[in-house]
Design goal:
33% helix, alpha+beta, 18 strands, flat, single chain, 2 domains
Amino acid sequence: MSTNTLDRDLQAFAIELFERSGGIADWPQTDQTGSVVVSPELAANARLPGEEFSMGTMAAPKSLHVGLASEFLDVAERVLNVGIPRQGSFCIQDRYLTSRDLTDRIARTFAWQNARAKCQAAEPAQAEYHLWTLLGSMRSEDVFEATFRFAVNVESRAVVEMPDFFQEPDVCSDVAGSPLNDAETYDIAVAEGKRRLIESSLDFVQRIEQRLKRDRKRLQDYYRALGREADGSKRRTAVASTPEEVAAKKRAVDLELRRKLAELNENYLMQATLRPVVVARVQMPALVVPITIQRKQAIRDYRLYWNSLMKKFEPLECSRCHCSTYSATFENDTVDLLCTRCAEGI
């Protein structure tokens, strides 16, 4: 990436950062100085130069230096923490809900592997979701980071891959709603975030393991050579060492190798971190289809959700691993729903 392109990207980010935080930013050209006006609260809590200050890509007195080599990223983090809400409630009040019979669509969407299913008439409802954004990282002698975004249906607890909710034209703030209780779906979100972090970092972990294997072999080859040298049997001009001295040298080489290998393992130690960044509660119209599942003599009721944003049915949640699935197997007595992988053992 060229310097000019990086400067333009940082310029656009800085402008959006302060405007999304309730301020005003005017910075037409990257080779010139821009100006920012923010609220007194943001200026104080984010430790900005003041309520009014200049910014640019070059360092200057009493100006915010926007660059990767400056403290700009630290300033941006403080502004995000103070000025950007981490929680919020939104809704879509009205949506067209299909009036067609959904029985055939349910039969095409879901597979009931070992049970009979009886559907009832679809009912309109307001479905509630928590939209989670999580930041995951894997750190070793290198770093992998990724952002994960998904929705969790609060009632069904299924993970739903919805389109960008906030790009919908009829989204509005739900200021009259009850306080957001993200604990209702926190465990589901963390479990899903872990799965996605593991899957997305497979190539990264493989590269780290290959580097560790390579560096371990180099150490072992080097210290094996030192061990052979300590033997002294091939050194014609060397003064012959006693067996005790040879054994002591070999022990020293072996101890040093083990110490170096321990240091290497510590350097390559993999540390995984998953941190929730933003959660939003959204409500929108949906169709709910009550369905009765019969497994042998046991009966249990479930609810299927037809998502008005996706225009299709949402998956169901596995009772064991909490993964989403359209292929359901049920346990005998409890009629607990299992995904294909969890059902392999029954």
